[in-house]
Write a structure and sequence with these properties.
Elements lengths: L1 E6 L3 H13 L5 E4 L16 E2 L9 H20 L4 E2 L3 E5 L2 H16 L5 E3 L1 H7 L7 E5 L3 E3 L1 H15 L2 E3 L4 E6 L4 E5 L2 E10 L5 H6 L7 E13 L10 E4 L11 E4 L5 E9 L12 H8 L2 H8 L1 H15 L1 H9 L10 E14 L10 E4 L3 E6 L4 H17 L3
Parallel strand pairs: 1-2, 1-12, 2-9, 5-14, 12-19
Antiparallel strand pairs: 3-8, 4-8, 5-7, 6-7, 10-11, 11-12, 13-16, 13-17, 14-15, 15-16, 18-19
Helix pairs in contact: 1-5, 1-11, 2-11, 9-10
Protein name: FAD-dependent oxidoreductase
Organism: Natrialba swarupiae
GO molecular function: (S)-2-hydroxyglutarate dehydrogenase activity
Length: about 400
């Protein structure tokens, strides 16, 4: 019997295993991953941005964790020769209303101890010569990591310390026998004293087997990213964002220069036809599971969802709409400058009333299990502090 079994070898699972083994290399920790290759889902399909804790709507705890996470992830990358882009982020305003909101972001950053530089039009173009804007903020400590390299190195370090990584092992059912937790998997039964459920989009389903999290359900969203062609990649030097609008459900189009020089932008957001629906396919059992929740239908019928659908579906299925949005930041952008990049599927938790649950960390526990329903929205950024936090929960149960 293992001391700890971790379901899911993504960022949450591997960072927690790393924290546990750093604390006690003698622990018997097994990480169970249903895929044969790491990073096939959320942990490998993301922008890789390391964003410190500024911006409206962040709690003090989340702000602190993000800022700490940026520095710790950056140090981990430097220690293990992982590609890291350290050129900062430029947030631009193109209207007076956006400039006013930019001032509030500056206040938020200042109160959190995060260094930012206020920019005028000339200042913006010093950092991003092709960007349009009447005002801006430069955030020097915002960075980008190769999330695949980062995840693989975390897993490697876990194995070096003594952890076990078992791929091709899908957990189908969890039972608490009273003296241990028994996992029914695709390759047989595995027992552990304590279990961490960090199964991403599948975590909620496994938590429901324990009678937990009956107040929430998961709804998946398909996120399509684009990238600039190699000949146009110099249009963006680093990270370039629009000023966020808290009253709009649309995140806007963001530009991210990755460590390999590729510039991705997006995403567009639309309902996903399954938890792992990256192409135009759908998973009938998962769709039935999603649709069986009354909160899902209330969510679809809400005014906020209808506004989001109007904005985001147009960007998803009409490339000219996406281009128009992107041109607000870089006016010289042409349709020929864009090609489709990767697709991600992001989770959001819904309440029974059809409301989006908070993006704050949501962890549910029993005597022998810890279930991560929502690991905060900034997965790569918070990975190491979150791993420490979850490791403490697990150590209390050993």
């Amino acid at each position: 019997m293992h001391d700890v079994a971790i379901i899911g070898a993504g960022l949450v699972g591997c960072s927690t295993a790393y924290a546990l083994l750093e604390h006690d290399p003698g622990l018997d920790v097994v990480i169970l991953e249903k895929e044969y290759h790491l990073g096939q889902h959320q942990s490998g399909r993301n922008s890789g941005v390391l964003q410190p804790g500024y911006g409206a709507g962040l709690s003090e705890r989340e702000s602190t964790v993000r800022t700490e996470g940026v520095e710790r992830a950056s140090a981990f990358c430097r220690q293990h020769d992982i590609q890291l882009q350290e050129s900062g982020a430029t947030i631009v305003a193109t209207t007076d209303q956006e400039a006013e909101r930019l001032g509030k972001i500056e206040e938020s950053a200042s109160s959190a101890g995060i260094s930012v530089e206020r920019l005028d039009t000339t200042g913006i173009q010093e950092y991003e010569p092709h960007a349009a804007g009447t005002a801006g903020l430069f955030v020097p400590n915002e960075r980008v990591v190769d999330s695949q390299q980062y995840l693989h190195e975390l897993a490697k370090q876990c194995k070096n310390i003594g952890g076990i990584l078992q791929k091709g092992t899908e957990v189908e059912q969890i039972d608490d026998t009273g003296s241990a937790v028994r996992l029914q998997t695709s390759v047989g039964t595995i027992s552990a004293q304590t279990v961490l459920n960090s199964a991403g989009l599948h975590a909620c389903r496994l938590a429901h087997e324990f009678g937990l999290a009956q107040d929430v359900s998961v709804v998946p969203f398909r996120c399509q990213y684009y990238e600039l062609t190699p000949s146009s990649s110099e249009l963006c030097r680093s990270l370039l964002y629009p000023t966020p609008n808290p009253s709009s459900p649309s995140p806007g189009v963001k530009f991210v220069r990755r460590p390999d020089g590729t510039v991705i932008l997006g995403p567009t957001v639309s309902p996903a036809l399954g938890y792992e629906s990256y192409e135009s396919t759908f998973d009938s059992p998962q769709i039935r599971q999603i649709a069986s929740n009354a909160g899902f239908w209330k969510f679809l019928a809400s005014a906020g969802t209808l506004r989001m659908a109007k904005q985001e579906l147009s960007k998803t299925y009409r490339p000219t709409t996406f281009l128009e949005e992107a041109r607000k930041l870089i006016p010289t952008l042409d349709e020929e400058d864009l090609v489709k990049s990767f697709v991600a599927v992001a989770l959001r938790l819904l309440t029974r009333d059809g409301e989006m649950a908070s993006s704050e960390l949501d962890v549910r526990t029993t005597k022998r299990t810890v279930h991560v329903l929502n690991p905060m929205s900034a997965g790569v950024t918070v990975s190491l502090p979150l791993g420490d936090y979850l490791a403490d929960h697990i150590l209390e149960r050993l």
